[in-house]
Amino acid sequence: MTSFSAVLRHGRGWLPLLGAAALLGNLTVLALPKVLGQAVDATVANHSVGTSVFDPGGWGLIACGLIVLGVVCDVVEVIAGTACVAGTAAWVRRGVVGRVLAAGPAGVRQFETGDLVSRVSSSAVDAARAGPATVTAVSAAVPPIGSLVLLVLISPWLGAAFLGGVLLVVAVLWLFARRTAEISLAYQETQGRIAAALTEALAGLRTIAAAGTAGREEQRVLRLLPELHARGLRTWQVLARSGAQAAVVGPLVLIAVLAVGGVQLVNRRITPGEYFAAAQYAVIGAGLGGLTSVLGQLARARAGITRVAEVSTAQPVAYGALSLPDGPGRLVFDDVSVRAGDELLLDRIDLDLPGGAAIAVVGPSGAGKSVLAAVAGRLQDPDSGQVRLDGVPLGALSHDALRTAVSCAFERPALVGSMVRDAVTVGSMRPEQLLASARATHVHEFVSRMPDGYDTPLAEAPLSGGEAQRLGLARAWAAERLLILDDATSSLDTATELQISQTLMTDRRRRTRLIITHRAATAARADLVVWLDHGHVRAVAHHKDLWPDPTYRKAFG
User: Fold this and answer.
1) Could you tell me where the DSSP H helices lie in 54-129?
2) Residue 165 class from Cβ within 10 Å (0-12 exposed, 13-18 middle, 19+ buried)?
3) C-alpha 336 chain-centroid distance
4) How far apart (Å, rounded) are the C-alpha atoms in residues 344 and 365?
């Protein structure tokens, strides 16, 4: 699970270097005023020049060396910080994407698609900044603490004046950190909701254009902008207020130290060089107010980790270790129920479907056909009951055994990969297997006409809805025991649908075929029909025996 400590642990390859560079840089900052003060005292005392490393010229060389060292430390900090954020962001993204894919559709149902994209993209980067921001925040304590110690060594009164001012700066920073954490999380959540609405609109762009509802969709997507603006404005108000407070408090530190130091100098209790050094240390303490940006980054990192961790709580699908015995593909639903909140989608389904048969599942919209298909393919586990394939519960099968035996094709297939070949290939499918699947589903007919055939970039392939469905069907065709089609031929033209239907019904491999359909002709060619109605099995029979029932005929529209 992604947590603040886990993010810090992952950055341990770069964080020690980052911390060392930050510490050395801060020590350089602390040493420089002391060296310059010594140079001032050496000049005032008229020490000879060039005869000793302790004359003004020698101290000047040391100061130049410290400045160069500080620049080198800054460069190392930038490089190490950037590399740490890049590597950690990649690690966070791999974890989130892996958890989403492992959890499956049911496991991440509570997240909108656009919101998930937002969490993987921007929230992951914010989370990855936790390590560098923490190192920067911790190392930032070194200059004021060191300044306090060195001022006390110069004069306890200088230390007391410095401490009073720095405590005010710390109070400002503490209040800023408290306010920013909650505001940053709310801002990121609103961004995620806007991303979710935009993703929905992009997915339905053709429908929006056809319906002429672009204006209404624009308002729907952008209606959250005022809320985002308000949260962003609130963030900047807090930052501006804290910056103003730090801008007021910071100079007070300098004024207090200069005033006390001036008295000490007049009374000859400190030297001019020590007074110069004290002024520089006061400036360092006053600069602590600039940490508001670092604390803001730390707050955004915590908010990003919170959003990423919410996805990490999605439970991955658990698989067993069993393999399937030899069998015809007999599919049994034993008292299966599926709920969505208070709604019962499938109610105590009992089915014993013969292996090797073509089984049509019909029913009106909302009858539970797609839910039945999802449970049969173990894309969703039932809330109660059990589904068995050739006597083995689906949950007891290993991942490889299940996905080798069972495949699904959908009404709107998501074609993944860079080339057409990738959209059809399953696992380590051999070229001859790919070609066999493509020919059986009549994919080869239109792919072979493309300029680069199966190597045509998927984004450039001119696919109709029916051709996309055929690619999805070809990808599922490799199933060895159970092939599930969830309205997967609905966009095909009549001639192609008839060809594929005949291929399905006369499957030479005699696999069990579970076909969700709204077409009476497909149900008529099936070996058996399961008639669903409002989550219940109304009948299991042959199409010709059910056809006289007017309610059954109404299921086909």
Assistant:
1) 56-107, 113-118, 124-128
2) buried
3) 34
4) 15
Residue range 120-175, pLDDT digits in tens: 888 888 888 888 988 888 887 788 888 888 888 888 888 888 887 777 777 776 76
Contacts of 294 (CB under 8 A, 6+ apart): 133, 136, 137, 140
End-to-end CA separation in angstroms for the chain? 49
Contact (Cβ atoms closer than 8 angstroms) between residue 363 and residue 529: no
Determine phi and psi for 468, rounding to 5 degrees. Answer: -65, -40
Instruction: Please give the full DSSP string across 471-523, using - where no structure is assigned.
Output: HHHHHHTT-SSEEEEESTTTTS-HHHHHHHHHHHHT-TT--EEEEE-S-HHHH
Amino acid letter, 19: G
SS3 category, 359: strand
- The pairing of strands 512-516 and 358-362 is parallel
Task: Give me the residues paired with residue 408 across strands.
Answer: 484
Contacts of 6 (CB under 8 A, 6+ apart): none
- pLDDT tens-place string over residues 3-60: 888 888 888 788 999 989 988 988 888 888 888 877 777 777 654 444 444 566 777 8
Q: What is the pTM of this model?
A: 0.69
Neighbours of 250 (CB within 10 A): 23
What are the C-alpha distances in Å from 202 to residues 150, 191, 206? 61, 16, 9
Q: How far apart are CA 378 and CA 385, in angstroms?
A: 13
| Among candidate residues 137, 99, 133, the one with its CA nearest the CA of residue 304 | 133
